[in-house]
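Regression test case RT-17, inverse folding.

Input:
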């Protein structure tokens, strides 16, 4: 990992690390695969998280923790999408809108989780020099990837909200390539959200194993 943390090149006066560059290119690939609803988005996300964890560890605790979450949820997402794709007509995950209860639960999880993790970081200053944004990135990533694993259209919105904090923090800490890549992320997220949004409205809803799932999801649209 020491080799990956060496300098690859200099861009606009910013020193670009190999780990920063490779990890974020893989992240872009994972996002594109997620847009296409391919289960391969999850192993690519896992590899991206592993490389970026090595880049951030010891410097940006919240960002490193975010990548640890990426790897953990990637394993869950791989299992979930493999299970659910067999229940759709085209053999891929079927996007759906979250119910209002699920939306409320996600918003509450971000709010409560951010406060709890920030207080933990404040109690142990060595974990983070900037507790609140680190906590928000950490918790927001958990919620976004969980929503993605469940096939919820709202996961795209969750990623945008996380990046609003993560991008400035990334630039401020010298990971310029990550910041530049997030500009492309933004475009992919908007296109991907549009595609999932249309599919969720025009296509059949996934079978979630809950008798009331179809009715509750339809009411949320």
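Golden output:
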């Amino acid at each position: 990992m020491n080799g990956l943390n060496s300098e690859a090149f200099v861009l606009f006066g910013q020193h670009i690390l190999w780990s920063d560059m490779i990890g974020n290119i893989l992240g872009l690939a994972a996002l594109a695969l997620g847009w296409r609803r391919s289960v391969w988005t999850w192993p690519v996300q896992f590899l991206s998280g592993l490389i970026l964890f090595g880049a951030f560890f010891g410097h940006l605790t919240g960002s490193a923790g975010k990548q640890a979450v990426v790897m953990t949820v990637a394993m869950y997402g791989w299992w979930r999408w493999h299970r659910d794709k067999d229940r759709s007509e085209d053999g891929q995950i079927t996007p759906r809108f979250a119910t209002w209860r699920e939306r409320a639960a996600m918003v509450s999880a971000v709010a409560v989780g951010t406060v709890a993790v920030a207080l933990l970081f404040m109690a142990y200053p060595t974990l983070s020099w900037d507790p609140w944004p680190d906590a928000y990135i950490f918790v927001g990533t958990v919620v976004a990837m969980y929503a993605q694993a469940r096939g919820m259209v709202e996961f795209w919105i969750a990623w945008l909200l996380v990046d609003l904090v993560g991008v400035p923090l990334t630039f401020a800490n010298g990971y310029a390539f990550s910041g530049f890549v997030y500009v492309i992320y933004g475009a992919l997220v908007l296109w991907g959200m549009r595609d999932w949004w249309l599919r969720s409205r025009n296509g059949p809803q996934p079978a979630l194993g809950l008798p009331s799932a179809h009715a509750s999801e339809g009411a949320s649209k």
